[in-house]
Write a structure and sequence with these properties.
Homodimer. Belongs to the class-I pyridoxal-phosphate-dependent aminotransferase family. It comes from Paenirhodobacter huangdaonensis. GO terms for molecular function: L-aspartate:2-oxoglutarate aminotransferase activity; pyridoxal phosphate binding. The protein is α/β, with parallel strands linked by helices. The protein is 40% helix and 12% strand. It has two domains: 144 residues, Aspartate Aminotransferase, domain 1 (Alpha-Beta Complex); 226 residues, Aspartate Aminotransferase, domain 2. Bound molecules: pyridoxal-5'-phosphate.
Length: 400
């Protein structure tokens, strides 16, 4: 009898975490490495949020709470959905988990049966396909090409839906491409979904606050109220308030689904950290200055990185609408050989040689289901980004 489960054999460890670990190892070994792999803001959690957590500890809010969130936080989440997205949810339609990751996972575990399909646009966040596989479902990919801004069209979505499709996972702004759908682009997708009543929508709005210029963020249940009864609107405080380590994510959706997700959580982790929940109440209800400040910084960095990468021979980098990632194509580098003698056969070879020879850690595109590309997280200092882009340029100029 095999010790490890058959299900586990179907999934792979997160490649983004692997790149971050490799960069850390090289640094510890004394190498000069700039890590552009990690998907987290480099800013500190705002002071008012930290103070709320300290107050929670000091007033003894350190015990088990209701499994899927304290009433104060559910109330703050309802107010957030109403204020920012025009969506009305009752507290009984809200669930809170240990990060957005757990919320998405709970929903898949609570609903997928063997054979159920989940449509996932590529390039995708690395965890979606593996979460679907862990939950017993089958991921179905739809490619958003660079030419369409890494977005999929209604016709592509229509072609991917079958009678077995249970979920459509939608992520805008996207990790890894930074692509965000305008109201018109999203309406094209929701029109298709309206024709397929068996398909539920999992909208991962984690990067909602990070859109640039006058881009207007929209979410499916807002664009098409007809989808409200089969949409799970997921969000969290990790990226919006520089709270990745606090582990609070949440979602609003139909009561029966929310209850089922709570059941999964009750038999795995129980409540998310009580202290983090009180901190999240302050994040959502308190001053929102950090949100605008970080957006401004990220927009400046996006412009810096896009401009610099487009001067690198063999690289094409579109300008994304949001998040803190860019997803350049390295098509023009494929088939060449680096100064160190590495043949660039694909984006994985490109990223490996870039790390080894130039000391820049990026994540190769195949990890996100669309090649030949790589992802840069520009959630790091302007100085580090400028130096990293100079190294990438020198590396590309050295390809023969
Ligand atoms: C698209 C997307 N969804 C969800 C998450 C998970 O966020 P959390 O840290 O709250 O679990 C991430 C984190 O990288 C993400 O990029």
């Amino acid at each position: 009898m095999a010790f490890l489960s058959d299900t586990l054999a179907r999934v792979k460890p997160s490649p983004t975490i692997a790149v971050t670990n490799k960069a850390r190892e090289l640094k510890e070994a004394g190498r000069d490495v700039i890590g552009l792999g990690a998907g987290e803001p480099d800013f500190d959690t705002p002071e008012n949020i930290k103070r709320a957590a300290i107050a929670a500890i000091e007033s003894g809010k350190t015990k088990y709470t209701a499994v899927d969130g304290i009433p104060e936080l559910k109330k703050a989440i309802c107010a957030k959905f109403e204020r920012e997205n025009g969506l009305s949810y009752k507290p009984s339609q809200i669930t809170v988990g240990t990060g957005g990751k757990q919320v998405l996972y709970n929903a898949l575990v609570a609903t997928l049966n063997p054979g159920d399909e989940v449509v996932i646009p590529a390039p995708y966040w690395v965890s979606y396909p593996d979460m679907v596989l862990l939950a017993g479902g089958t991921p179905v990919f739809v490619e958003g090409r660079m030419q369409t801004g890494y977005k999929i069209t209604g016709a592509q979505l229509e072609a991917a839906i079958t009678p077995k499709t249970k979920w459509f996972i939608f992520n805008s702004p996207s990790n890894p491409s930074g692509a965000a759908y305008s109201r018109e682009e999203l309406k094209e997708l929701t029109d298709v979904l309206m024709r397929h009543p068996q398909v539920w929508v999992m909208s991962d709005d984690m990067y909602e606050h990070l859109t640039f210029g006058d881009f207007e963020f929209v979410t499916p249940a807002q664009v098409e109220p007809g989808l409200y009864d089969r949409t799970l609107t997921c969000n969290g405080v990790s990226k919006a308030y520089a709270m990745t380590g606090w582990r609070i994510g949440y979602a609003g959706g139909p009561e029966a689904l929310i209850k089922a997700m709570g059941k999964v959580q009750s038999q795995s982790t129980s409540n998310p950290c009580s202290i983090s929940q009180y901190a999240a109440v302050e994040a959502l209800n308190g001053p929102q200055d950090y949100v605008a400040e970080s957006r401004e910084a990220f927009e400046r960095r996006r412009d810096l990185v896009v401009a610099a990468l487009n001067t690198c021979p063999g690289i094409t980098c579109p300008t994304p609408e949001g998040a803190f990632y860019v997803y350049p194509s390295v098509e023009g580098c494929i088939g060449k050989t680096s100064k160190g003698g590495v043949k660039i056969t694909d984006d994985e070879a490109f990223a490996a040689a870039l790390l080894e020879e130039a000391g820049v850690a990026v994540v190769f595109g195949a990890a996100f289901g669309l090649s030949p590309n790589f992802r840069i997280s520009y959630a790091t200092s302007d100085a580090a980004l400028t130096e990293a882009c100079a190294r990438i340029k020198a590396f590309c100029e050295g390809l023969k």
